[in-house]
Write the structure tokens for this entry.
Amino acid sequence: MLKKFPAGVLVFFFLFSVSAVCWGADEDLTVYVTNTGERYHREGCSSLRRSRIPISLGEAVRSGYDPCSICKPPGLFGKAPVPEESGRPLYRVNVAELALSAEAELPRMVPAEVIDHVDGDTVRVRILNAPGSVGAVETIRLIGVDTPETVHPSKPVERFGKEASNFTRERLLGKSVYLAFDWDLRDRYGRLLAYIYTGEGRCFNALLVQEGYGFAYTRFPFQFMEEFRALEQQARNEKRGLWGDDDR
Ligand SMILES: [Zn+2]
């Protein structure tokens, strides 16, 4: 068996596996948090009986969770957590407490101003008193909704893409909004994943789906997935927006 591999290859694999342990593996380790607690846990900890939300270790530490003193999960070695004391804590969506509309708890969310518009489901914001892991200016990809393409470099403008894009611009550009976050803080492009709430307490992500300006985007799990699916079904039934009969 060993004869098949030259020594150099074996050394390479050894170094590769060592480096993976030192630099990458711990950050991506899955730990668990609860709806209300301030600590993160190992799988199977007795504190997870009521709610159990998977999160990466890196994300847990950066979001300000402390390790549980009962199950003693690992910490992030050699990686100081980003200090959060300079800004307000990130408000994580909590299904039990957060509503999609008027009862939304705006004071607990992160205030921001929409300064630029990219397309129906992506905007740029300036974040006031930004929490440590969030920049003063960020590109936001709205969680749970996918609007037809308008700015993709290699794809044509899709049907109803323009309308969706205009709707977002008219409703959000220049407006003060509130941000809430879900399990994943960023997507693979580094964009901030957020729910945008209007000053009236409406969840704009949900509004896009409800009015037929976008699909419920359920490829990546989020806490309002079932609600968004139901909003899309309702929009389809009522032939709203992109579900309408007319060929635009
Ligand atoms: Zn625990």
